[in-house]
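Re: that backbone. Tokens:
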């Protein structure tokens, strides 16, 4: 008897794969997630989420801002080796917004919540299932799996590789990566504070000390993270020892006041995978890109992949042309590459080991701060571009806020949406296009988020995609929607 073909199989139950599974299952699709491990990884890895990512997770009930689970991050200081403030980045939270601009969190807690939410929507997790081979064809994908010593296979219409930096799916496809030539080993240490902690840091700090660059991150109590760069000639075994770690932390936390929860050496890379889709197989998250952690955007970028891909894949499975999936990489890859390049740029500043070069850097940064002592805000995310689903000048995430006291994202609810100054701006053809994709029409209200949406675009109509990205404004946005419906046979 022929094996049933599942709509979607996801390889990897990390935060990206699990978020994608939840988004697809919420849209009514049968999703199976194959995960090699038997449980979530019990120790923290990622630590930072920006506001957009928190909004993305909130769509599936995967974000909490309760004490002890996450904390709002005030910003980041760049310090010289002698403690001088070279640069201050501050998170300027807008009172109209519903999540903080920058957030620090405990990843195992997030992973557990995401897995619970995905299961709530009906996603199936097959744990202890290691993928050993992938066979792609025009009609589907067969995945060979080993579980408990037994071999089996799974048939799927679509396969998504969300299996991390060492991605089996990426390697099985044989696709190469663009190397931005940043390969620096760092020791990452997560601690639990057990004793006196009279001055816990309120801001993250990048200490640009040529003796040993390092990072300090305040986490939800009682945790904290330290990251220390390995020096030339130093091996992981040289530095990843309790007595060495305690000595490195001593300037910031008295010995005996903390226990080490995890310590590991990672090599920070800047890599972009060249092909994110091959036939019926796609890549997302670290399988598609890797970046140094200096901007805290690694997981954020992977979650953006999942949100971009989820509505498109759901539309294809429901009847849209599969060329819709060809817009995924052109939109996401340039966006990610700009972030990776920025993170690598900061990394090159932070990782300077030459004392003379570091001294010149410090003089220049101190002079710049003296001329303009104001804090700088966190750099805004670049807008998406690269496909017919985004009009030039659009591609940004729609405003956060509330409408009549209700969180705007809850009203958007993953649907196509047109925000209009008045319904009279819509022609009969516009209404027909909006009806084709079951779009909702929201009339802007003064002093509410809908009015900000129009004000930001300086127009009387804004078309918003299911992933909260603005397709376009004014007549251009409406015409682009009509063209996209024809080009891709879009369905709700």
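Recovered sequence:
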């Amino acid at each position: 008897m022929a094996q049933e073909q599942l709509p979607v199989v996801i390889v990897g139950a990390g935060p990206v794969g699990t978020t994608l599974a939840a988004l697809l299952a919420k849209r009514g699709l049968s999703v199976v997630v194959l995960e090699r491990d038997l449980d979530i990884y019990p120790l923290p890895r990622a630590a930072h989420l920006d506001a957009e990512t928190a909004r993305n997770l909130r769509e599936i009930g995967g974000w909490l801002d309760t004490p002890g689970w996450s904390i709002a991050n005030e910003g980041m200081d760049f310090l010289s080796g002698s403690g001088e403030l070279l640069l201050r980045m501050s998170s300027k939270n807008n009172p109209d917004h519903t999540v903080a601009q920058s957030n620090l969190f405990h990843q195992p807690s997030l992973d557990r919540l995401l897995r619970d939410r995905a299961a709530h929507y009906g996603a199936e997790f097959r744990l202890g299932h290691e993928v050993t081979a992938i066979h792609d064809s025009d009609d589907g994908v067969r995945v060979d799996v080993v579980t408990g010593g037994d071999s089996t296979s799974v048939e799927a219409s679509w396969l998504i590789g969300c299996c991390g930096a060492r991605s089996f799916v990426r390697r099985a496809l044989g696709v190469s990566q663009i190397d931005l030539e940043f390969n620096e080993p760092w020791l990452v240490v997560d601690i639990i504070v057990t004793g006196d902690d009279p001055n816990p840091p309120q801001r993250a700090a990048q200490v640009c000390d040529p003796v040993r660059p390092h990072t300090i991150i305040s986490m939800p109590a009682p945790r904290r993270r330290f990251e220390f760069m390995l020096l030339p000639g130093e091996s992981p075994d040289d530095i990843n020892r309790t007595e060495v770690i305690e000595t490195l932390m001593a300037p910031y936390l008295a010995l005996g006041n903390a226990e080490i929860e995890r310590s590991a050496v990672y090599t920070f890379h800047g890599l972009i995978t060249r092909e994110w889709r091959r036939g019926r197989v796609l890549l997302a998250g670290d399988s598609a890109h890797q970046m140094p952690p200096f901007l805290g955007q690694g997981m954020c970028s992977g979650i953006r992949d999942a949100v971009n891909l989820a509505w498109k894949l759901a539309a294809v499975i429901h009847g849209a042309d599969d060329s819709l999936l060809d817009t995924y990489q052109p939109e996401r890859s340039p966006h990610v590459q700009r972030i990776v390049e920025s993170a690598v740029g900061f990394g090159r500043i932070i990782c300077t080991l030459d004392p003379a070069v570091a001294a010149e850097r410090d003089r220049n940064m101190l002079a710049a701060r003296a001329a303009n002592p104001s804090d700088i805000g966190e750099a805004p995310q670049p807008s998406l571009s690269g496909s017919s689903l985004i009009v030039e000048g659009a591609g940004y995430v729609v405003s956060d806020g509330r409408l009549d006291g209700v969180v705007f994202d809850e009203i958007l609810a993953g649907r196509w949406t047109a925000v209009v100054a008045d319904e009279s701006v819509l022609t009969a053809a516009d209404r027909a296009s909006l009806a084709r994709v079951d779009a909702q029409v929201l009339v802007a209200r003064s002093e509410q988020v809908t009015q900000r949406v129009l004000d930001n675009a300086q127009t009387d109509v804004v078309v918003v995609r299911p992933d909260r990205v603005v397709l376009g404004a004014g007549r251009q946005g409406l015409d682009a929607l009509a063209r996209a419906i024809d080009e891709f046979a879009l369905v709700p």
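The mean pLDDT is 94. The chain has 13 helices and 26 strands.
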